[in-house]
Design brief:
Helix content is 77%, strand content 0%. It is mostly helical. The longest helix has 30 residues, at 34-63.
């Protein structure tokens, strides 16, 4: 558990700038739409971040412990990881 928290702390600080750079390099966004795209990205990440913590709190209230909430976050992370393998690189097809 401690190792996971340390790895999260080390990697999370670089994640948002990296995702913003990926968003900048997306051909459909371009420099003229980057402000709007960045604002939408930030808003969506804040909403999802709040909802996941709300779900952990509700699970803690219902079960009396944080273990189920921890399993929920692990399942969420694993599902995002598995879904990321389904993303296809469309630049190769062009």
């Amino acid at each position: 558990m401690l190792t996971g928290l340390i790895l999260y702390g080390v990697t999370s600080s670089a994640l948002i700038p990296l995702l913003t750079l990926i968003l900048m390099e997306t051909p459909e966004v371009g420099p003229e739409k980057m402000g709007t795209a960045g604002g939408l990205f930030f808003s969506k990440s804040e909403i999802v971040g709040f909802k996941s913590l709300l779900a952990v709190g509700l699970l803690e209230d219902w079960t009396g412990g944080f273990l189920v909430g921890g399993y929920f976050l692990v399942a969420l992370g694993v599902s995002i990881l598995l879904l990321s393998f389904m993303i296809q690189d469309r630049t190769k097809a062009l």
